[in-house]
Amino acid sequence: MKISIQKIIRFDDYPFDESVDISEIENWNNDIRRIGSVHVTGHANAQGNQITCYLTITGTMILPCARTLIDVTYPFEVDAVEVFSTDPYYQEEDESEIHPIDGEVLDLDPYIKENVLLEIPFRVYASQEEIDQFALTSGEGWDIVSEQETEEPTMDPRMQKLQDLLNEKEDKENQ
Fold this sequence. Notes:
Blueprint (H helix, E strand, L loop, with lengths): L1 E3 H6 L3 E8 L12 E2 L1 E11 L2 E15 L6 E15 L12 E3 L4 E3 L1 H10 L9 H7 L3 E2 L2 E2 L13 H18 L1
Parallel strand pairs: 6-7
Antiparallel strand pairs: 1-8, 2-4, 3-5, 4-5, 5-6, 9-10
């Protein structure tokens, strides 16, 4: 999403309402499996050498469930404020929240992507209906067993031979 700096300066409060494709962040090192375009609304205003952009970013991302790794749809809405400097002598400092602008066009795409990445939650969980429909319940050499199914005591196969020896010994003593 690119905006001409002259448009922002000309209007007292420059509004914008666009869809921005940020699907390239799926390939970055994060948990996002799918994300398409996001809807960005807001406005920008200029005061002196600073331009302030007020953004509202809404969209939906697909993330893995923390328990089952099935796809979970996660809707989000991010409110962000980004400040830019048009001063040609301004040097960005490490801790500064003011971003320098090179040229005559303000490109908001990197800041939209950054704010979406900051919105990724630590964990998401699928609903029980989704788990019942999509989650794996068994595989080669494994099976999910609930606590109700395991009420009967089962003997470890490695210990079964020892139990057989003890049973033989008791049988011989009883004879």
